[in-house]
Structure formats: structure tokens, C-alpha cells
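Morning!

This is the sequence you dropped in the shared folder:
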Amino acid sequence: MAASGQVNGNVSPQYLGVTEPISTAGPTEADHARTQKLEKVLVSAGLYESQDEAVLREEVLGRLDQTIKLWVKQISQNKGFSDQLIQEANAKIFTFGSYRLGVHGPSTDIDTLCVGPRHASREEDFFAELYKMLADMEEVTELHPVTDAHVPVMKFKFNGISIDLLYARLSLWVIPEDLDISQESILRNIDEQSVRSLNGCRVTDQILRLVPNIQHFRTTLRCLKFWAKRRGVYSNVTGFLGGVNCALLVARICQLYPNAIPSMLVSRFFRVYTQWRWPNPVMLCAIDEGTLGLPVWDPRKNPRDRMHHMPIITPAYPCMNSSYNVSLSTLRVMTDEFQRANEICENLEMNKAEWNILFEPYPFFEAYKNYLQVEITALDDDDFRKWKGWVESRLRQLTLKIEKHTYGMLQCHPYPCEVVDSSRKGGHCAFFMGLQRSQGVPQQEGQQFDIRATVDEFRHSVNMYMLWKPGMELHVSHVRRKQLPAYVFPGGLRPVRPLRPLTVVSKSASGPAFGNSVSQLPKSDSGTTDEDVEDISGEGGERLKRKFQPAEEVGLTKRQTIREPMNVGDERMTTSISPAVASTEQFIMGEQETFDKTLKRGLEGYSAEEELEAVDDIQTSICRKGDSAELLQSKLEQASGICREQSRLAALKPGSCSFSNGVVDELE
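The structure's back. C-alpha cells below.
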């Protein structure tokens, strides 16, 4: 959505997004050279499909479109409709996700949406009649309907191409071939599942409308998705970034730097999101309240929205938080990765590093001393696919429960991919989670974390699966790093660890464990050698404490906080605004004019550090006079950040601790 402001009576040039760009500077010769090197790395990594595969995908989509058109005519005939209505009956296929954005790779699935008429139901017609038609086709394999998902989907392969097919049932009797699903009226009188299904296509199309240069956006997004996968932070289902999250984050950077080319955009991506103060939202346009009364993301009205840790808001009505799966633990992992990548990009700009360093894989199975292993098995491939999908969809709940039941003092880092033991017969895979003491939590002698009840609760929720069959099994256990199965390592070969000086560690006695002896869970040490464990104390601890204390507790920082009153409607408000910046919540509330005024500074030509200050200053929190004490407290907790809450919780005395069948004993 384009916006414009007025300065001295003159209309300023239009821009995309909710704020003016941070910089409109174009690339230098060095930027062009770095972009060429980046594109070579992406090509050599095999991220682009061949021409033959592109043609095959087009043929598959054409064949699928023919199939659903035949399906809708058959169900119209079965329901006794007139010959004319049978003749006019139609359904239409739309694409969305990475394929629609133009950033798909050779093995990427195609996200598709089937839009059908009002007389074609989801349960009886889509998941029953269409399922039968697809099952009878030789080209279709691995057909798997997921009817109980948040967005119901039919998964299958068509001539070897993976397809995820959603369904939206419109209120129209006939679906026209030139149907425009971007119109708000398309959402009228349809069920909630159809709204969610349509939202994928509507969001994808809106993203492409809101970026200044689609080709630069695509190259940057392809790079960032590759980085996220290599660093283990690409998996929406486990609480990391998914495809739409990455697209929205990249699109916002394209808006803030409209004339930048991919190498610049990648660097600015990490520079901005290293500085971003979550949970302030990332938005491409102002939130559209709409006219249909559908719920939209609004933390002022919806208590659940205030609990989101990393809101990334979709630009199409109804606007939603696309990253509601993010937990405190996964947010911490991602912010650490943003920081690492930012340092590498700074070295790249000084010709002290190469692009390959950015994409080095994260050594997950060497990064922690303690892991949680979730192993699932089934008797045949069909049962295994269903069972794995169900368990995987519940893993995020295990992460959240561990955080909750340990008062945020135990961090749980899920590995985003399943690991398969190819030597075993039948369906088998395992999911792993790294466990460590959360940053900022002080070490206490004899401290233990008892999460047996947490795991039992998780297993109970998984065993509620309505389609359970004999042979579908789940085993949860704790393993030390040295006990990890060999199949998690490349080639099944465990890496040789260097010898280290002998240290003496005290252990507390405990009872039997979940199938393993109860073992110690030392604090992991991201960024240092695996075996080093450093207490948060002394000068380093004071720096950490100062970093996460809010301004009102520490006093004035280099960005001195000023207080100034604002008028919003008839209400008197107070906002904390840093000198060149406005609150993100201001433009949520319609205070675009006030927001624009505070951003109209000459940011072009700023240094990297000054740009960071400008980005940081985009965000502050607003407290309404007259808010209830509970609401005010909620806002203050959100504004203070993750580690402030941890500091408070660290003072609490932990309960008894020992995690059977594998986890958790005393922390070093």
C-alpha cells in the first residue's frame, strides 16, 4: 500500500509500507560484485530448477485443473442439478507459497488451492469424492488427507511432484474462470476454514504488490530461505520461520531499502532484525479492519495476541500473525542466528569473509550436552505418514510446556527436521531437542528440573489420536551427546572430539530415569566450545543485566527517552518516543501522521550504526491512561522483553528436579 506525506506543503514521493524508507541509496560497484558472487553461490547450491522440471510442473498443474473441473461436474450430476448447471459447473486451481512467489527449488512442493462452488462440500465432496478420483489415478501416489488440521489439506504426489491441495467453498453457484480472489467480497458468507485457505493466495499476491522490485525480492528471499534451512531455523511447525514468515520479513526490508540490490538487502536484513525489539510487529501495510467483521490481529482487543513473541503480520484481510508458533526458546535461537549472520555480513562488506561462511550448517548435534529424543514408529508406510504428521504437529506443545513448567529457566531448542535410521525396518524417525539453561538464569548448586510430568502430559495428548492403530508407537527419552545414535551424523560417523582438560563436576544422586540413567543437564555455551560453561557473573553479567533492563530502570541510555503527550481521538495518551522515531503501535491506531513526522529525518547516508538506531527507534510502547492494572502489567512485560522476565523468574526457587527416561538432573 503506497503512502505519502507532506513536508512544507509539498507532497513527498510515494513509498511502500507503513513508514518511509530508511535509505534510498543505490548500489555501488562493490555491491554489484558481491551480488554476483551471491548469485553464483545460490546456483551452485542447486536452488534453481531446470527448464524440464519447470515444464513438468506446468503440465501437472494443468492436469490437476482438468481433474477438479471433472470432479465438480460429476458431483453436480450426482446431486441432480439441471443440465445447464452441470454444463456451467466449474472449479479453479490457484497457486500460492514459494511457487507463486517464484522462489521454489527443484524438490519444492506446490501449494495449491481448489476454489469450488457452494454445493461442493469439504467433507463429503472434496475429502471423499475427489479423494477417490485421485486415488484411482496412476499418476497420483502417497495420497494423504489431513482433515483435522488448522487448514485442512490433501497431500499427494502427481507425476513425482509434491502437491499440497487446500479447498475453499465459496457462496457462488458458478465459479467464473476470471475469478479475482483478492476482492474482500469473496470472503462473504463462507466458513472459517475457507477463509484460512483463501488467505494463503491472498497474502502471496499482496506481498508481490508491496515490494518495490520483485526480482531483487526473489533473489534475497531465496538466499534467506537457504540460510534459514542451513542454520536450522526454517520450520514453522516447530516454532521457527516458515516460507510466508521469511517472505514477509524480506519484503519489509525491501520497503525500507527500495533501491538496494540482493547483497545489500541480505546485509540489511540481519542488521535490522538483530536490532528489532520483539514483540513489536513487522507489517507491510496498515492493518485493514475490513467490513465483514472477521477477527484481525489486534493486541489491544485480543488478549491472546498480546502473548505472541514474534508477530509478523500478513498484509491481506483478515490480517493475522503468521508466526504465532514462535516460542521464547525458538525466538532466542533465531536472534542468536541473526546476530551471527550480521557479524558475517559486516565482514563481507569489508572483504574479510565469503558468502559460504554465512551458509555453514549449524552443528546441532554437537552444540548441546543434553537432548530430548522423540522416537516414533509404525508398521507400514501409510500408517507411518499419518502418525508422523500427528506427532510432529504436537511437538511445539512439548516445547511450550517445558518452558512453562520450568518457569522459563530451561531452554528447549527443537531440531527442525526428522532423522531416519535407514537400517530399521518399517516406518521410523526421530525428532530431537537440545536442552540447556536459559540465558541469564544464574547457576544454583544442586538445581534440578523435573519434567517427567511434562513429558507424560505430552504423551497423553499424542495418544488422543483418533486414527491410532496397533504398531503406532512413541518413545521419549533423554540422551547425552555421547549417547546420540550414530544415524544422526552424516554417513553414520560420529565426529571425533578433541581432548580437553579434565574437570571435576559434582553430581546429585537421583532415581531411575525414562529408560536412561538420570544425567546432568549443563548449560550450553553457544558461541564457545561445547564443554566450556561460564557463569553469568562479574563484568559480563553486569553487561547482560544492563542490556535487558528497560530504560526506566537503568536511566538514560545513548537513546535518551523523552515523554510527550499525544491525542488519539478523545483519549489522552502517553507515549515513550526516542528522538527520531515513532511507536509501531501508533500506526496500528491510525496515528500515521504523527508517525510520519517523527521519521522525516535525513536518514540517507547514515552509517550502519546510525541506521540501527533509526530502526530501533521505530518501536516504543504506549500505555493508555485508564488501562486496568492487569492490561498495563501485560504491556509492560511485553515491552521489557524476554530476558527481563527471565531475570525475575531466576530469583524463584526451583522445585525438585529429575527427568525420567532421560532428562534432567543437576545443571553445572
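Headline: The two ends are 53 Å apart (CA to CA).

More detail when I'm at my desk.
O.
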